[in-house]
Write a structure and sequence with these properties.
Layout: H1 4-15, H2 21-36, H3 43-49, H4 55-64, E1 77-85, E2 89-96, E3 101-108, H5 116-131, E4 140-146, E5 149-155, E6 159-161, H6 162-169, H7 174-193, E7 206-209, E8 214-216, H8 228-234, H9 245-249, H10 256-272, H11 282-291, H12 297-300, H13 306-315, H14 327-338, H15 352-409, H16 417-433, H17 438-444
Antiparallel strand pairs: 1-2, 2-3, 3-5, 4-5, 6-7, 7-8
Helix pairs in contact: 7-10, 7-14, 10-13, 13-14, 15-16, 15-17
Length: 445
């Protein structure tokens, strides 16, 4: 039979929104059947063992109900409130007793702790975040296993997610959006320098504290330099509305340009109040990501400057060869934009792919024209050289022939009429053959 502690626990579980009354009643029925079989356990343990309740939630409910049976699930940490729940587990606000500070603790779902792949994924997240040290990235603090639970402790940020802020306030002013995105690009640049690709940048994974500082969070899908095997395990796509096309096709193919795309899609949502792509199903959304262009940003938010729309468009180019090649390139344009020095390139009309390809074709045409011009000039130069060489050779041959004719004349006093006639005939033939050469002119002279 349920004890008073069991009933008190159940009441606080329902009151706190952790369980529905139906879930509690069903589990109480299971507990009664267990008692009949001679297996006695608390309602808390039955709920946790059946996977109906998370271990961290059970610790919070026990504390709220004033029940102190059982230990804290993670030694050294007191779980105070659940911050969020995902497919892999839950994140809690906790008090770190030794350091006397609040932290956030991610705990893997107990039913997933028997799956080595999921355990390795959480450990890998802790390892990757531990390599990063940047003011715009949530810092990793500690990780471990306790009583069969796998957990990861990180910096606690007092504030809200960017998604929550957008829901509460709607589209963001362009100057504020540029400031936040600039700080996040700096975070992406730092992670990239350490060989880390986030692969799931979206408004829900950006935390904004009470002073307006943004931090990139949740590296659960991140890829390090040697993570191809782990990436292949689940073929994780990321979030469809914000995933880069090449990552949607093959998650292992993601690189820092994929993070630039996702951050550009987040930038778009910040300015318009909606993601660039959405559909009734994941398939519909991914089809749009792969083959369609989003609605023009300034059509949805005409107050956004053209220069800002240009940066967003270039960050979100379908073909990553048309995107910014690195976070540093994005930062250069964002800083120029903040300083009022950025201008939209001549010929850009809103489609970055068409613009880049058009410019590439123009450059190829100009290069080809240069090659043709250079070839033509070379041909003329070669022809001129050949003409000069031919003329020089004719002059040398004419001089030799004329000298031979003159030698035949002999001494002036020995010349007869017949001799003169014969020489005159040879000179006439010589002049006809070598007409136009300097030798012929000299002979005529």
């Amino acid at each position: 039979m349920p004890t008073n502690d069991d009933l008190l626990f159940a009441e606080h579980a329902v009151r706190g929104g952790f369980l529905s009354r139906e879930e509690v009643e069903e589990t109480l029925a299971v507990q009664r059947r267990m008692d009949e079989m001679g297996v006695h356990d608390s309602l808390r343990n039955v709920l946790v063992n059946r996977g109906v309740l998370r271990e961290g939630d059970a610790a919070i409910i026990s504390r709220q109900a004033g029940l102190h049976a059982g230990r804290e699930p993670i030694p050294g940490y007191t779980l105070e409130a659940r911050l969020g729940t995902g497919a892999m587990g839950s994140v809690y606000k906790a008090w770190q007793k030794g350091m006397k500070r609040h932290v956030a603790v991610k705990i893997l779902r107990r039913d997933l702790t028997s799956d080595p792949r999921q355990v390795e994924r959480l450990r890998r997240e802790a390892e990757l975040v531990g390599k990063l040290d940047h003011p715009n990235i949530v810092r990793g603090l500690d990780s471990g296993e306790s009583e069969g639970l796998v957990w990861f402790a990180m910096e606690y940020v007092e504030g809200e997610t960017l998604r929550e802020r957008m829901t509460r306030l709607g589209p963001m002013p362009a100057d504020e959006a540029v400031r936040i995105v600039t700080s996040l690009v700096e975070a992406v640049a730092h992670a990239s320098s350490q060989g880390v690709v986030h692969r799931d940048i979206k408004p829900g994974n950006v935390l904004v504290d009470r002073s307006g500082v943004a931090r990139l969070a949740d590296y659960g899908l991140a890829k390090g330099q040697s993570d191809d095997a782990l990436t292949q395990i689940d073929a994780t796509l990321g979030t469809p509305q914000y995933v880069a096309p090449e990552q949607a096709r093959n998650p292992r193919d993601a690189d820092v340009r994929s993070d630039i795309y996702s951050l550009g899609a987040t930038f778009y949502a910040m300015l318009t109040g909606r993601p660039p792509f959405d559909g009734e199903t994941i398939t519909q959304t991914l089809t749009k990501v792969l083959y369609e262009r989003p609605a023009p940003l300034r059509q949805l938010a005409p107050q956004v400057p053209e220069t800002v729309a240009y940066v967003v468009e270039r960050m979100m180019a379908k073909d990553r060869r048309h995107r910014y090649a690195s976070p540093e390139e994005v930062l250069a344009d964002l800083r120029s934009l903040e300083a009022g020095r950025l201008s939209v390139p001549s010929g850009f009309s809103g489609d970055i792919g068409a613009f880049v390809e058009g410019r590439r074709r123009r450059r190829a045409w100009i290069a080809a024209a240069g090659v043709v011009a250079a070839g033509t000039a070379a041909a003329f130069a070669a022809k001129s050289w050949q003409d000069r060489e031919y003329a020089s050779r004719r002059e040398r041959n004419a001089a030799t022939a004329l000298a031979s004719i003159r030698a035949k004349a002999g001494p002036e006093e020995a010349s007869t009429g017949a001799t003169v006639s014969a020489l005159s005939a040879e000179l006439a033939a010589f002049a006809a053959e070598h007409e136009g050469t300097r030798a012929a002119a000299d002979g005529a002279a």
